[in-house]
Amino acid sequence: MDHKALKLFISNFVELTENDWKAVEPVIEVLHLKKNGFFIREGKIAKKIAFTNKGYLRVYYNHDGDEITRDISPLYTMITALPSYIKQKPSFEIIQAITDCELLIIKRDHLEFLYDNYPNWQKVGRRIIEEMFVETQNRIYSLITQTAEARYKKMIESFPDIFLHVPLQYIASYLGITSQSLSRLRKTIKF
Amino acid sequence: MDHKALKLFISNFVELTENDWKAVEPVIEVLHLKKNGFFIREGKIAKKIAFTNKGYLRVYYNHDGDEITRDISPLYTMITALPSYIKQKPSFEIIQAITDCELLIIKRDHLEFLYDNYPNWQKVGRRIIEEMFVETQNRIYSLITQTAEARYKKMIESFPDIFLHVPLQYIASYLGITSQSLSRLRKTIKF
DNA sequence: CAAAAAAGTTAACAAATGGTAAAAAAAGCT
DNA sequence: AGCTTTTTTTACCATTTGTTAACTTTTTTG
Fold it and tell me: Are A158 and B190 in contact (CB under 8 A)?
């Protein structure tokens, strides 16, 4: 296993040494999930972080019986139920495979060990979450300034591959609208 | 200057040593901003982070002539224009004092030095941004699942002090609605 | 204090989105 | 393939929010 995509992903943030990589290699596990398989279930405590080497995950939660999709992970990103992961409390967020997935996993204990013993890894953790924070801010801007139609069009531009794999109802709730509203939008949009 | 509030804030995340504190004391500066004074102007490059020791700041940007408020900082929080700070590119975000403010400042170069030489400080940086990320996620949930009225009510509960100091138009755009809509909501809500 | 500017409110109408229900289309299952 | 379940679309009406414009109130400034 050479973890090529993972190394490329991380090299965007920090230049790691051979030694840093040697420390992480033994604690990376591979997890294959079938479509609809769960990475994290409701009420469970998140004890690992995943890198999506193949496939798409979604993060959602149950809101009065409706599933609200907070995130659809593109390829090659880090993902976990962070509120649960940080506080080690039962997760309200559910993470499930939209397609068959290959995930690279690191357990929380291992990652904490890396953080405390390899300053470069602590830095990786900080830099990645910083980027995720900025992206989330951008999403807030689009939610408070743009119509659902504009958000939908932007999503098509930014993540065209997602539409090949992800049911529209998930996309609708990610955009903050009902699937009926999304259908209506799609009817009026011509390309 | 004993930085009591700052120490309390940081101790929520990481236990620092005397030595860690000795390293940061010399590089903390105090900045007093008058109401409407700028912490970061549009087009400038963010080179510092603030801790709001007194007063309230807002983060906003110009969107077709309208000011869109992305954030209103409560007391005792860290704040900067992160996209500009990370990439060292001109900021589209503007940070301005809503009230007279006392800010504890650390310059980016100093903070980077701390990050690279004091693992505990790197950890502080990571833990704080993790928390901010989770809060931002919660805001996304409320934007995609709740009506403006529900968001407004929740804001009153969560940050009652903000309403004593912050113009309603800023709150409206923070909630993702116009100030006219907020007026309408306020008229219909009885307490 | 008075004038000017900014902030907040109101109203009428327009546009966007939600809720409900049903039909159509697609996907999953023996 | 045929049956079942899930997903997507459509339609109608209700609700929420936006737009424009005028007015009122509050704050700032000379």
Answer: no
pLDDT band at residue A2 under the 50/70/90 scheme: confident
Query: A-contacting residues of B 54-113, CB under 8 Å?
Result: 61, 63, 68, 70, 82-83, 86
Q: pLDDT > 70: what percent of chain B?
A: 98
Mutate one of A77, A127, A145 to test the B interface: name it (highest B CB count within 10 A). Answer: A145
Asked if B59 contacts B20 with a C-beta cutoff of 8 angstroms, the reply is: no
Q: What is the pLDDT of residues A132-187, one digit of tens each?
A: 999 999 999 999 999 999 999 999 999 999 999 999 999 999 999 999 999 999 99
Residue A180: which nucleotide is closest by CA–C1'? D9
**Residue B74 near residue B155 (C-beta atoms within 8 A):** no
The pLDDT tens digits for A12-38 are 999 999 999 999 999 999 999 999 999
Give the nucleotide at minimum CA-to-C1' distance from B186. C9
What are the phi and psi torsion angles at B59 (to 5°)? -110, 125
User: What CATH number has the domain spanning B4-145?
Assistant: 2.60.120.10
Residue A181 Cβ < 7 Å to strand C: yes
Q: Which pLDDT belongs to residue B191?
A: 57
- CATH homologous superfamily for the domain A4-128: Jelly Rolls (2.60.120.10)
Tokens (6 digits) for B124: 């502080």
- Kind plus residue range of the DSSP H or E element containing A157: helix A148-158
For A145-180, b where at least 16 C-beta lie within 10 A, e where not — what string?
bbebbebbeebeeeeeebeeebeebbbbbbbbbeee
Specify which residues A101 forms β-bridges with. A33
